[in-house]
Design brief:
By secondary structure, the chain is mostly helical. The chain is 69% helix and 0% strand. It has 12 helices and no strands.
């Protein structure tokens, strides 16, 4: 991946092949995808970069940990705060949901990045249903197994937003 948006299609296609995920991590693809999360312009390369990270980390605690250590969480959480297209925000929330289903340390990092209030804000009326569903699942995953993270969700007014 050279950082050019045109190459993301090739990386995305590789991430859809079972068994290549660890090879992509080992090749250092995550740090090369991260600058693409800040690209302005076409929605498709941005959505594919996020989807590629999602595909790589799905189903493996080790790959989630490696991607988190490479810095994947911060731009994904920031993407929800930006005025990114809804399809990109939806994919970012789904990717964060996958990370938040992981180890307590990764859940703690997602909370420390301030994801709680942003996720809750996406539950408001008028937001896309898929985005709302992914954000609700993120909040549930974050609250699992820790009173501190539960308190984070409560402090962000996540409970009233979830029961609307």
């Amino acid at each position: 991946v050279s950082g050019l948006p045109g190459t993301i299609a090739d990386v995305f296609n590789l991430t859809k092949r079972d068994g290549l995920e660890q090879a992509l991590i080992d090749a250092g693809v995550i740090p090369k995808l991260l600058p693409m999360l800040n690209l302005k312009g076409s929605e498709e390369p941005l959505r594919r970069a996020v989807h590629s990270i999602h595909n790589i980390v799905c189903g493996s605690e080790g790959r989630k940990s490696a991607a988190a250590k490479a810095g994947a969480l911060k731009p994904l959480v920031a993407m929800l705060d930006k005025r990114a297209p809804v399809s990109v925000q939806t994919r970012a929330a789904d990717c964060i949901r996958v990370f938040a289903s992981s180890s307590p340390a990764i859940r703690d990092e997602v909370c420390a990045l301030g994801a709680g209030p942003t996720l809750v804000s996406k539950l408001a009326d008028g937001q896309a249903k898929d985005l709302q569903a992914n954000c609700a699942a993120c909040l549930w995953n974050l609250a699992t197994g820790s009173n501190d993270r539960k308190d984070t969700v409560v402090a962000a007014k996540g409970v009233p937003a979830l029961v609307r």
